[in-house]
Amino acid sequence: MDLSGDVWAQVALEASTVYLVDGVMRSPFANTTIEKLPDKVLMHIFSYLTHREICRMARVCRKWRLIAYDTRLWKSVSLRPEISGLHVGSLEALLALISIRFGPSLRYIELPIELITHTVLHELSNKCPNLTHMLLDFSTAMQLHDFSEMQAFPAKLKYMVICLSEVIFMEGFMRKIYNFINGLEILHLIGTYEKVEEEEEEIYEVINVHKLKSATPNLRVINLYGINFIDDSHIDAFSSNCIQLECLAVNFCNKVTGSTLKTLFQRSRRLKCLLMHQTSLISEHVMAVEWEKVSLQELDISATDVSTECLIDLLTRIPNLRFLSAGQLNSFNDTVLKAWMEGGNPRNLIALDLDSSDNLTDDALYKFLSRHGQQLSGLVLSGMPHITDQLWMSVMPILNNAKILVMGTPERLGVNIHVDQLMDGIANNLPRLERLELRWDPQNLRFSDKSQKAIDILRVKCLKLRCLVLNDGRYYEIVKANFERADRNTVVRTSTSSRVSNYYLLGNYKDLVFN
Questions:
Q1: 3-state secondary structure 24-76
Q2: For residue 505, is it within any domain?
């Protein structure tokens, strides 16, 4: 439902109008209750609620129950209760939901291991013809259901996430769905990187990537996240069959060394985004790529071991780099930055992440930002104790197009950060700012009794600000209370629950998001 600003303005005007009735000033809406709202308005209000909340609303009255169970409110459904989804107690209950409540309106569904059965998948295929997005969570599985009788599977999927188990082999299930997923454009295979405790444990190749790539020739986006068996041969396999590949992410796949990168770019001419955070890249393999001929625009090589020579070779040869994440690299120093400015092409750069690059001096950073800061939409210079508010204040007028900023280090510093001046500088120079994170230790933040004024100016001038992340402490409480008084309750967050990243600026960001 589309309610324009003019309509809301008219409603507000009428609501604020009062009339003299029997000598008493009364609003025309004095006797109006929520029960008298039209169904389409209630439907619009309910659309902002989670499904848990909608289920509670259904208990209020018969009218609300009818609205709550309207299939238009059930287009996107998560049935993983541990990730804010609904809990379904039995397969029978789920089958009833699919038939009665989901139906043709369902576009997206998340299923936990206990609900992934051939009966459920057959029912989804039969009753939900418009289902295009699916997440299947096998991560906690110790045993799969029997899929020997499975004859049907949703055939219009464009987006699929498979959360892998460490020990359950998927081939028995995958063999049954290969014929139904050739229309996939976006594939996420999510590993168990964050759960691994002992590196000595035996590693199993629980899904056959070489067979999977043959069944998915139309993939545009591939995300292989934290999978301990993924190596360069799997990248080679996908590149041999997916000629439309635009984005490849292998973050936290420790066995990837880059040995097939040259072949990847020769085959995948459309590849614009390559994310290789915390992989085991070998500099010689990276330097073997014909970077001058690639269409690459977005690159993440953070937390790898590439050399200074490799970085210079890379940055001076890529012709049109727009996004660079190269944090946690001891090899990224002033020499690299100077070579990039003089021999490369950073003129199209819109996002730069140099987190924890301790070998960069503030002087070199200032020279780079003086020349290219105005074009940047995102800048991350966190994790460097020598980069304080002084550098940020000096470059703030240059960064007037910034949407994302991350600054500070959680380490205790020997100097204090004058956060009132910093906030004032941000407010007066960065009107487009959407996300901001200050990682400094709360003990290093110095602010006065008049800090409310600086926060007020920030809140009033940075109207697009949707996320402000601070370490938990007294200053966080002050800023949070200030924004809450202005009914902006979700803006201020703690660093324990939120992180700001330049990834929001990736061209395929929405395709890369998985739950």
A1: EEECCCCCCCHHHCCHHHHHHHHCCCCHHHHHHHCCCCHHHHHHHCCHHHCCE
A2: yes
Q: In Å, how far from its chain's centre is CA 185?
A: 18
One-letter amino acid for residue 297 of the chain: Q
Domain count, the chain: 2
Query: 444: domain CATH number?
Result: 3.80.10
Judge contact between 512 and 247, C-beta under 8 A.
Answer: yes
CATH number of domain containing 64 = 1.20.1280.50
Measured CA to CA, the distance from residue 230 to residue 235 in angstroms comes to: 8
Q: Is residue 327 part of a domain?
A: no
Query: Any long-range contacts for 58-63 (C-beta under 8 Å, 24+ apart)?
Result: 61/35, 63/35, 63/39
Helix (H) or strand (E) holding 404: strand 404-408
Q: Is residue 477 part of a domain?
A: yes
Q: What is the 3-state secondary structure (H, E, C) of 479-498?
A: HHHHHHHCCCCCCEEECCCC
The Cα 306–Cα 296 span in angstroms is 18
Taking a C-beta distance cutoff of 8 angstroms, is the pair 273, 246 a contact?
A: yes
Q: How far apart are CA 422 and CA 391, in angstroms?
A: 11
Answer for the pair 347, 371: CB distance below 8 angstroms, yes or no.
Answer: no
Residue-range definition of the domain harbouring residue 377 = 350-514
Residue 161 lies in a domain: no
Single out the residue in 13, 44, 73 at which a domain terminates.
73
d(CA 320, CA 295): 7
Tens digit of each residue's pLDDT, the chain (515 residues): 445 445 444 545 555 555 555 556 666 656 667 777 888 888 888 888 888 888 888 888 888 888 888 888 889 999 998 887 888 888 998 998 898 888 899 999 999 999 999 999 999 999 999 999 999 999 888 888 889 889 999 999 999 999 998 888 998 899 999 999 999 999 999 998 755 444 556 778 889 999 999 999 999 999 999 999 999 999 999 999 999 999 999 999 999 999 999 999 999 999 999 999 999 999 999 999 999 999 999 999 999 999 999 999 999 999 999 999 999 999 999 999 999 999 999 999 999 999 999 999 999 999 999 999 999 999 999 999 999 999 999 999 999 999 999 999 999 988 999 999 999 999 999 999 999 999 999 999 999 888 899 999 999 999 999 999 999 999 999 999 999 999 999 999 999 989 999 999 999 999 999 88
